[in-house]
């Protein structure tokens, strides 16, 4: 039964990711209520109404080879990848019986990733809500345990200050949203998880930047959206769970 509900969690994650992607796209493109929720999905280029079987998360992307069945418009690879990450994350959180707050965390990271990928910024209201919920969770944990939880708040504060100083020195300030998200994560993750997350995040974002440079599509001064890599790193962190520390140790040490 545990495997069965893990699979259900995976499917729910895929469906939720597909729904949130569509919802954010509609909000971002000026859809009004109730069209935001009830208007049928369509191709972004030719406007073809999508049938039910064309909306199946990930599977429809594979079947139609990532293209619109009418005009051949290429669907961004981001969509199936983001759906898989949320599906795997939700399945992993259930399978390993992790703190339920991580369901909320991964959905916020999904939302941040969406906006940062397109605009390289995130609506401040969403970051403020995330940071506020992180503080409330930290305080509640402190009251319940009658002591300060073993979270990585000091590491988070130190990292945020370091990023701010680095931005000043390089005269290329990092996004305020990126810094606040890192700070919020330090309130939700224990020290081991947070450090592993930072390793993964730096590795993935650096690897992507080097690939762009190798393909001459970017330089060392190019701006790269960081939150999608934080989202991906969080998905890997949940999937590997306790094994992540050993894996990172073997790679970096």
From TrEMBL:
UniProt GO BP: signal peptide processing
Bilayer-crossing regions: 6-25, 93-115, 121-140, 152-171, 191-211, 223-240
Keyword annotations: Membrane, Transmembrane, Transmembrane helix
Lineage: Bacteria, Candidatus Dojkabacteria
UniProt key word Transcription regulation: no
Name the UniProt record assigns to this protein: Prepilin peptidase A24 N-terminal domain-containing protein
InterPro entries: Prepilin_pept_A24_N, Prepilin_peptidase/N-MTase
Domain of life where this protein originates: Bacteria
């Amino acid at each position: 039964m545990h495997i069965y509900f893990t699979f259900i969690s995976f499917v729910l994650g895929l469906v939720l990711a597909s729904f949130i992607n569509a919802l954010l796209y509609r909000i971002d493109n000026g859809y009004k209520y109730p069209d935001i929720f009830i208007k049928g999905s369509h191709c972004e280029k030719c406007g073809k109404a999508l049938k039910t079987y064309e909306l199946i998360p990930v599977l429809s992307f594979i079947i139609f080879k990532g293209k619109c069945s009418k005009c051949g418009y290429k669907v961004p690879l981001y969509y199936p990848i983001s759906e898989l990450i949320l599906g795997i994350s939700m399945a992993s959180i259930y399978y390993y019986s992790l703190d339920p707050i991580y369901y909320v965390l991964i959905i916020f990271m999904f939302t941040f990733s969406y906006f940062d990928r397109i605009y390289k910024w995130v609506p401040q209201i969403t970051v403020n809500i995330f940071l506020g919920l992180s503080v409330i969770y930290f305080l509640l944990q402190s009251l319940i345990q009658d002591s300060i939880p073993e979270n990585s708040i000091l590491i988070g504060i130190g990292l945020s200050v370091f990023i701010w100083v680095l931005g000043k020195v390089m005269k290329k300030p990092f996004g305020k949203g990126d810094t606040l998200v890192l700070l919020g994560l330090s309130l939700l993750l224990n020290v081991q998880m947070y450090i592993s997350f930072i390793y993964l995040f730096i590795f993935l974002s650096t690897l992507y930047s080097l690939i762009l440079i190798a393909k001459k599509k970017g330089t060392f001064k190019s701006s790269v959206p960081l939150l999608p890599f934080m989202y991906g790193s969080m998905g890997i962190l949940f999937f590997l769970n306790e094994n992540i520390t050993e894996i990172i140790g073997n790679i970096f040490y």
